[in-house]
């Protein structure tokens, strides 16, 4: 993978100082600010290649779009719901997080809230309520059995709690191996003395606990939310607290932070924190260090860790994928230049051939689309946004893999019902073109530097005329490849020292001509 140039990074809030230090030690200029307003961020973001945030900075589409040089948004923490990931993806910006750096801290705060709710450990609540309850023997329902859910389960088991849970993705046998019996939410609600939620906030988890689910719970159930505000519906929670259906709530997160509506925070049976789950020295040191190292690794082309919107890029970080990516891009560019029609493509089909390319079809197709879209009048597409941009432009991209003795990439595109095709591979570490629109080259064409393609009938006089045009323009001929094609029209490719200023003279000699730089 080619390094992503990151020279200047803005840290827009309180990220551990080790983040700045590590970035600076690796030659990156860093500005760290606290509590930037959205207006300040929009005004300044264009000066940076990278932005590092926690949860307070709202990286909305207008911030993303103002970041004309942005290549990376790093979240020193888990949730990326404060970042408009779709807007970033469309702009080709990588979004990455450090999802395990604060797991233990968030789990520990959850456990602290569960304990506080059992014994009313808060100055105010202790005055109001003297009688607590043991956790021992009680049932804890854990909704979301990922990193934090698991750590909460194993900790609360040591208090003798029975842990049950629900997660649509974590297999029941996996959670069973750390002591959590899975069941449907319908079965879970009525069994729990305590419920804690540990899912991301998304449409399927918004209002997971609502009036209907509270009604199915044991009277007096206690709930904890250290995940995201809104997973427990706030209005329903207040109603359940007031009716006694909910016996207490421990809340670290709110729909609006800090919450302007203080009804929940001020409720006598609520223990609340201002989003402190990750606020420990250890978690911050881990997240700050991890995000800095991940950015450095990406910028040096070493590895791509923690990217949430660039799966294609992640798989492209294998040692020899770089040349295949160049091949895909160059083939896209060659086909774009050599199709007679200037209409937009409607369909792109990429086939990878050969065992070792089985897992490369994803990045080969993105790379080919990057090459095909280079004339899109926006900032150049890259492997992050190629496929979303293609979809937006109405291009259908299909991929395929076929077993073959030799590794190769076949790129076919359709324009106005006509198909065009290129076949290439990486030979001796360099991308080469084997075939173009039915013409098979006698010598593979090295896809590097300035290339002149033309289609003509095989004739020595014509080739002399073409070299004459090059000489007249002061352009040197550096390599020459002709395709096998008998007497009919065939494609030729010349490696040239620079592009011709005007291709008109050449076009008068040959059927089709195109020049490009790859
Ligand atoms: N309060 C704080 O300071 C912190 C909050 N968090 C938040 O905690 C939450 C959990 O974080 P992690 O455990 O690291 O995430 P994770 O990705 O490891 O686990 C989330 C789990 O939720 C499950 N899930 C998805 N949809 C579900 C549904 N409809 N019902 C039940 N489960 C569902 C997923 O399958 C996954 O196993 C996130 O929202 C994160 O942003 C994380 C760190 C600190
Ligand atoms: O990592 C997360 O998802 C968190 O909620 C922690 O947020 P913070 O880094 O403390 O602003």
From TrEMBL:
- Any idea where the D-isomer specific 2-hydroxyacid dehydrogenase catalytic domain is? 9-309
| GO BP annotations, alphabetical order | L-serine biosynthetic process
Residues annotated as domain D-isomer specific 2-hydroxyacid dehydrogenase NAD-binding: 129-277
Pathway noted in the entry: Amino-acid biosynthesis; L-serine biosynthesis; L-serine from 3-phospho-D-glycerate: step 1/3
Where is each D-3-phosphoglycerate dehydrogenase ASB domain found? 323-407
| Catalyzed chemical reaction(s) | (2R)-3-phosphoglycerate + NAD(+) = 3-phosphooxypyruvate + NADH + H(+)
Q: Which GO terms describe its molecular function?
A: NAD binding; phosphoglycerate dehydrogenase activity
EC number(s) in its UniProt entry?
Answer: 1.1.1.95
Q: Which UniProt keywords apply?
A: Acetylation, Amino-acid biosynthesis, NAD, Oxidoreductase, Phosphoprotein, Serine biosynthesis
Quaternary arrangement and interactors, per the entry?
A: Homotetramer.
Q: Which family does it belong to?
A: Belongs to the D-isomer specific 2-hydroxyacid dehydrogenase family.
The protein depicted here goes by the name D-3-phosphoglycerate dehydrogenase
Q: What is the species of this protein?
A: Cyprinus carpio carpio
């Amino acid at each position: 993978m080619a390094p992503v140039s990151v020279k200047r990074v803005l840290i827009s809030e309180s990220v551990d100082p080790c983040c700045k230090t590590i970035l600076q030690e690796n030659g990156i200029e860093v500005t760290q600010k606290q509590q930037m307003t959205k207006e300040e961020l929009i005004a300044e973001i264009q000066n940076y290649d990278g932005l590092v945030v926690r949860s307070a900075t709202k990286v909305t589409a207008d911030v993303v779009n103002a970041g004309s040089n942005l290549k990376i948004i790093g979240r020193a923490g888990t949730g990326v719901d404060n970042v408009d990931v779709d807007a970033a993806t469309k702009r080709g910006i990588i979004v990455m997080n450090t999802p395990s750096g604060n797991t233990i801290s968030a789990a520990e705060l959850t456990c602290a809230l569960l304990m506080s709710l059992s014994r009313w450990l808060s100055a105010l609540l202790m005055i109001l309520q003297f009688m607590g309850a043991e956790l021992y023997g009680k049932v804890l329902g854990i909704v979301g059995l990922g990193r934090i859910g698991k750590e909460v389960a194993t900790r609360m088991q040591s208090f003798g709690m029975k842990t049950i849970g629900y997660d649509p993705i974590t297999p029941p046998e996996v959670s069973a191996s750390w002591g959590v019996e899975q069941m449907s939410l319908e079965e879970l609600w009525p069994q729990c003395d305590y419920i804690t939620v540990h899912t991301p906030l998304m449409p399927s988890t918004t209002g997971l606990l609502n009036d209907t689910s509270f009604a199915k719970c044991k009277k007096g159930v206690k709930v904890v939310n250290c995940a995201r505000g809104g997973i427990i519906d706030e209005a329903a929670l207040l109603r359940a607290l007031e009716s006694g259906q909910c016996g207490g709530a421990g809340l670290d997160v709110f729909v609006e932070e800090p919450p302007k509506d203080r009804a929940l925070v001020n409720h006598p049976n609520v223990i609340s924190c201002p989003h402190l789950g990750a606020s420990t020295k250890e978690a911050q040191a881990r997240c700050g260090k991890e995000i800095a190292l991940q950015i450095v690794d990406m910028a040096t082309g070493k590895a791509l860790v923690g990217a949430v919107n660039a799966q294609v890029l992640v798989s492209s970080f294998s040692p020899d994928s770089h040349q295949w990516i160049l091949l895909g891009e160059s083939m896209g560019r060659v086909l774009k230049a050599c199709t007679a029609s200037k209409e937009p493509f409607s369909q792109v089909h990429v086939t990878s051939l050969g065992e070792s390319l089985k897992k490369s079809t994803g990045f080969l197709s993105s790379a080919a689309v990057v090459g095909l879209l280079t004339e899109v009048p926006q900032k150049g597409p890259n492997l992050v946004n190629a496929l979303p941009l293609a979809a937006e432009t109405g291009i259908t991209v299909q991929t395929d893999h076929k077993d073959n003795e030799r590794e190769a990439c076949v790129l076919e595109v359709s324009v106005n019902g006509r198909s065009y095709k290129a076949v290439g591979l990486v030979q001796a570490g360099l991308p080469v073109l084997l075939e173009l629109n039915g013409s098979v080259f006698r010598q593979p064409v090295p896809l590097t530097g300035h290339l002149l393609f033309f289609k003509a009938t095989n004739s020595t006089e014509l080739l002399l005329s073409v070299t004459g045009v090059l000489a007249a323009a002061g352009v040197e001929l550096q390599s020459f490849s002709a395709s096998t094609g008998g007497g009919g029209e065939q494609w030729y490719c010349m490696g040239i020292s620079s592009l011709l200023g005007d291709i008109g003279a050449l076009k008068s000699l040959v059927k089709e001509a195109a020049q490009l730089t790859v």
